Amino acid sequence: MTGSHPRRRTPKGPLVLDTRELGRRPGSMRRVQTQAALPADLGAEMMWVPAGAIATLDLRLESVIEGVLVSGTIVAPLKGECGRCLAEVSDIGTVEVRELFYYADRAVDMADDDDARVLAEDHADLEPVVRDALVLDLPLSPTCRPDCAGLCVDCGARLDEVGPNHSHDRLDARWIALSVLAEGAPTGTDQGRSDPDESKEKK
After folding, report:
1. How far, in Å, CA of 43 to CA of 138, rounded?
2. Distance, CA of 126 to CA of 19 (rounded, Å)
3. Which of 33, 56, 127, 174 could form a disulfide with 15 if both were Cys (CB 3.0 to 4.6 A apart)?
4. Judging by beta carbons within 10 Å of its beta carbon (0-12, 13-18, 19+), is residue 72 exposed, middle or buried?
5. Quick one: 125 exposed, middle or buried, by C-beta within 10 A (0-12, 13-18, 19+)?
6. Rounded distance, CA 133 to CA 57, Å?
7. Who contacts 18 (Cβ-Cβ below 8 Å, separation ≥6)?
8. Contact predicate 77/53, CB 8 Å
């Protein structure tokens, strides 16, 4: 039948919002302030959301002609490693979200749009939205503090702990082979001196 659309199952999870109270009255609005557990696999190589983390959501749900507009902020704890000294880093991530969830009958002509969000039984699943917003906002190379000195390239010690006078004697690589040879060669004095007892035996 023209204009028909497949029936979507009601999503479940801590990041699913029920929008039925809004009805389909454009302009009606509801504020949602809640906390929800986040998925365990959110993050990048150097920064991530710790397992079991709880996010704080402060959102506004607004009914529009096409669907329900969800906007607001999401705050979540973060952990990671300093990109300079590898020390543990803890932070708080705050991201803004603004996403339109279409009514199923309004999304019929958007079947080819993979990025379009669609309500399922008047429920909005925020997990993909939260995932995209948090991961894209994570720093690629976090630091424990802006002036972190990093690690010593010779011994791996944290430069902030060993102090500014920490250093290592470096031998020019071009002289290393010569030094090895010199350690195994006889000295100039030994080369020009013979054993007196050995000379008497020869006579």
Report:
1. 7
2. 12
3. 127
4. middle
5. buried
6. 13
7. 122, 123
8. yes
Here the tokens at position 93 are 């991530």
Nearest to 83 by CA among 144, 156, 138: 144
Residues composing the chain: 203
Structure tokens at 60: 């506004």
Rounded to 5 degrees, φ, ψ at 158 are: -75, 120
Structure tokens given for 176: 């290393």
Q: Give φ, ψ of 148 to 5 degrees.
A: -60, 130
* Cα angle: 4, vertex 130, 75; to 5 degrees: 145
Q: From 76, 79, 71, 77, select the one nearest 129 (Cα to Cα).
A: 71
Give the HSE-up count for residue 103: Cα atoms under 13 Å, Cβ half-sphere.
Answer: 16
Query: How many CB atoms sit inside 10 A of residue 129's CB?
Result: 19
pLDDT in tens, 79-124: 999 988 888 999 999 999 999 999 988 776 665 566 789 999 999 9
117-118/88-102 β-pairing: parallel
Going by the DSSP 8-state scheme, the letter that residue 11 receives in this structure is P
